């Protein structure tokens, strides 16, 4: 299927690994010509950028950025310029219950995922609105639907981003812009391993039993990052031109079936 993304430009946050790097690869394979890659790890970004250029011939630019810093976020938006696509993917909200996650940890996690997404969207949306063209896809997370108390800061933050996506996307077509969200379930990244180790330690006092939690996911495994990236690429494309203000869940059916995460 031709997604009609040839020659486009994209800004992707959290692009140094995991879902973000997979999204960059999927977009490059679909012909996106310029990829602006943002994350805190500059060396990892440079490696991803070099691989994308070598494999696909696209222009890939590394932007080492901490989205928690307003001045760095503004510089990223300025340096990336008038992009066609914005993929908000950065985030590392800590796992834990209400008693385990203190006020500082809540604010630290939300300042990247929740406010980083909102603030960067504000910057980029204004440019897209002026051109009456653009697509924003927020990579959120299925915890915003299922609301596990053992991930309360993330559950609450994801639910907030779901509301943000629906609220903005419900009227953004008036400005020529589409805004969508994707809720991945468990994905095979370093982050999911860390979360499952924390949960195993909390439940059983043995972090190494995280493997048992991984096997309890739908289909007996977490999703691969590319399985999420392919859906993001479709949502960002002209093939999804009638979609805005909606959120697609990709979790192996867990949210629908009530299966444990």
Task: Write a concise keyword list for the protein shown above.
NAD; Rossmann fold; single chain; 2 domains; 261 residues; alpha/beta; 7 strands; globular; 10 helices; 48% helix; seven-stranded parallel beta sheet
Topology:
Blueprint lengths: L8 E5 L4 H12 L4 E6 L2 H15 L2 E6 L5 H11 L4 E4 L14 H29 L2 E6 L3 H4 L5 H18 L7 E8 L5 H15 L5 H6 L9 H12 L10 E4 L3 H4 L4
Parallel strand pairs: 1-2, 1-4, 2-3, 4-5, 5-6, 6-7
Q: Can you describe what's shown?
A:
This protein has 261 residues and is of the alpha/beta class. The chain has two domains: 9-186 and 228-250, NAD(P)-binding Rossmann-like Domain (Rossmann fold, 3-Layer(aba) Sandwich), CATH 3.40.50; 188-222, no CATH class. The chain contains ten helices and seven strands. The protein has a seven-stranded parallel beta sheet, sandwiched between helices. Strand 1 (9-13), helix 1 and strand 2 form a beta-alpha-beta unit. The two termini are 32 Å apart.
């Amino acid at each position: 299927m031709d997604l009609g993304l040839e020659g486009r430009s994209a800004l992707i946050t959290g692009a140094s690994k995991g879902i973000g790097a997979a999204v960059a690869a999927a977009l490059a394979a679909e012909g996106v010509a310029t990829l602006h890659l943002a994350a805190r790890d500059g060396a990892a970004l440079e490696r991803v950028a070099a691989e994308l250029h070598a494999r696909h011939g696209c222009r890939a630019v590394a932007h080492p950025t901490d989205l928690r810093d307003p001045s760095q976020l503004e510089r990223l938006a300025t340096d990336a310029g008038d992009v066609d696509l914005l993929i908000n993917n950065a985030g590392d909200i800590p796992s834990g219950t209400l008693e385990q996650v203190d006020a500082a940890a809540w604010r630290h996690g939300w300042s990247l995922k929740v406010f980083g997404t909102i603030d960067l969207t504000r910057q980029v949306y204004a440019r897209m609105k002026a051109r009456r063209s653009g697509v924003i896809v927020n990579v959120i997370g299925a915890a915003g639907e299922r609301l596990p108390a053992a991930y309360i800061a993330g559950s609450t933050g994801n639910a907030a981003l779901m509301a943000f996506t629906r609220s903005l996307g419900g009227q953004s077509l008036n400005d020529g812009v589409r805004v969508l969200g994707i809720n991945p379930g468990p994905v095979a990244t370093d982050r999911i391993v860390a979360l499952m180790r924390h949960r195993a330690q909390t439940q059983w006092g043995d972090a190494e039993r995280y493997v048992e939690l991984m096997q309890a996911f739908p289909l007996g495994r977490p999703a691969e990052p590319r399985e999420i990236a392919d859906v993001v690429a479709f949502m960002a494309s002209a093939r999804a031109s009638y979609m805005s203000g909606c959120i697609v869940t990709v979790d192996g059916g867990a949210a629908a079936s009530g299966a444990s995460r």
